[in-house]
Amino acid sequence: MVWYAWVLLLLAALSALYLWLIFPHLHRPDTAALLQKLYAHRGLHDGNHVVPENSLAAFRRAVEAGYGIELDVQLTADDKLVVHHDEDTLRVCGIASVIRTTPYAALPPLPDGSPVPTFADVLKLVDGRVSLIVEIKPYDKPVKNAAATRDALRTYTGPYCVESFHPLIVHYFRKNAPDVVRGQLAMGGRRNPTEVGIVSFFAIKYLLVNVRSRPHFVAYACASDHNLSMWLMKRIFHPLLVAWTIRDQKALDAARENYNMQIFELFTPDA
């Protein structure tokens, strides 16, 4: 075999490997209740001025407005599953407490004086009236956080899906709760060195972690989705696509062309 035939064979093998790494799960549970909806990022908050993000007030406003809700969950030191995005409470609450090492009763209140909500309280408030996108944070114990989330959702009858940046969390649902709609979170753009390492960022950006998670949907930072992996997602594999996080009407209109679900924040979308 001449040398260029070997080169072509190698390129074909590498292409097949690449597609195998990035392809999503080809079959998914019923997602009709989740699709073609707008989701309020961390609830319908106002940037933490009066209505804090991931607060019961923000979730109540979203339900009353008829929007789906995107929220974040993680465990406290005493294994309370709470709804909070950051690893600590400083940015939102003004007092620094690392959530995974702090008992629930010792967490500082939100700016409106209310406590950091438990996931159980949020599920009781929403009560199936709108759809949920539940992002599971890893923070040193990804599998434990995933298992706690699954347990909290076992008896919940409203529409929901789960997602995470951490492939082990999505993999947990793939193996232990395959009927739960699961998504792989990803982003493009430039890496923030304080948030993620080079290798992890590359694998997430180009969806190479899909080999582990095999997601039903891909949730991508839609403003920076211009790369080969996302091009292939849209044109070959046709998975569900979730756009995050949209902050103006123009970006929302653009995202509706390729994305099945849109997560918005800090503006009121047109009807």
Describe the 3D structure.
Helix 6 links the parallel strand 5 and strand 6. The chain has helices spanning 3-22, 56-65, 90-93, 119-126, 142-153, 167-176, 198-205, 210-213, 228-237, 249-255, and strands at 38-41, 68-75, 81-83, 132-136, 160-164, 182-186, 217-221, 240-246, 261-264. An 8-stranded parallel barrel has the order 1-2-4-5-6-7-8-9, surrounded by 4 helices. The chain starts with a helix and ends in a 7-residue tail after the last strand. It is globular. The protein has one domain: Phosphatidylinositol (PI) phosphodiesterase (TIM Barrel). The model has no long low-confidence stretch (mean pLDDT 96). With 271 residues, the chain is α/β, with parallel strands linked by helices.
- Helix tally equals 10
Mean pLDDT value: 96
CATH topology: TIM Barrel
Structural class: alpha/beta
- Low-confidence residue ranges: none
Distance between the termini: 62 Å
CATH architectural category: Alpha-Beta Barrel
Write down the secondary-structure element order. HEHEEHHEHEHEHHEHEHE
Give the biggest beta sheet: 8 strands, parallel, barrel
Shape: globular
In short:
Helix content is 34%, strand content 17%. With 271 residues, the chain is α/β, with parallel strands linked by helices.
Structural topology:
Blueprint: H1 3-22, E1 38-41, H2 56-65, E2 68-75, E3 81-83, H3 90-93, H4 119-126, E4 132-136, H5 142-153, E5 160-164, H6 167-176, E6 182-186, H7 198-205, H8 210-213, E7 217-221, H9 228-237, E8 240-246, H10 249-255, E9 261-264
